[in-house]
Amino acid sequence: MKFDIDLERLKEYILPYIEELKDFEFSYRNPLFWVGLFVAFFILSRFWGERKKPFSFTVISGLILLGMTKTEAYFSILFSDPLAPFLVKMVSLFIIALVFIYYAFIK
After folding, report:
1. How far is CA 100 from CA 8, 19, 29, 103, in A?
2. Which residue in 19, 22, 26, 35 has the most C-beta neighbors within 10 A?
3. Cα–Cα distance between 78 and 4 in angstroms, integer?
4. If we measure between CA atoms, which residue out of 68, 42, 67, 66 comes closest to residue 55?
5. Res 99: pLDDT
6. Angle between the 52-78 and 83-101 helix axes, to the nearest 10 degrees?
7. What is the pLDDT of residue 98?
8. What whole-number distance in Å separates Cα of residue 68 and Cα of residue 26?
9. Residue pair 77/94 in contact by the 8 Å Cβ criterion
């Protein structure tokens, strides 16, 4: 069997998904979002040892990121201030940092 990978076509397919993630726009339809969560799960499971702890952390983090995107869209419509989406992103990242600290040191 021979596999020919057309890197240019692959790049054209993946580039819009990368741009979404670079703009902190997370969607359940973005396959790179799910790949990132799986990679985070495998890395954390290697360091934390158990399977339950990294799985629940990545699920909670993914839900926070998906919720952040929806909340950011809502606040950008509600307020015309360009600072509102930035504040939503910072609050979400702060919550993820608190959850990480909880899972890393307490749980």
Report:
1. 37, 26, 25, 5
2. 26
3. 49
4. 42
5. 94
6. 160
7. 95
8. 8
9. no
| Helices and strands: H and E segment counts in the chain | 4, 0
Residues 91, 72 contacting (CB under 8 angstroms): no
The answer to whether residues 54 and 41 touch, using CB atoms and an 8 Å cutoff, is yes
Q: Provide the 10 A C-beta neighbour count for residue 46.
A: 9
Close Cβ partners of 43 (under 8 Å, ≥ 6 residues apart) = none
The answer, yes or no, to whether residue 107 has pLDDT greater than 70, is no
* DSSP at 51: S
The whole-model pTM stands at 0.83
Helix (H, G, I), strand (E, B) or coil at 96: helix
Structure tokens, 42:
């495998």
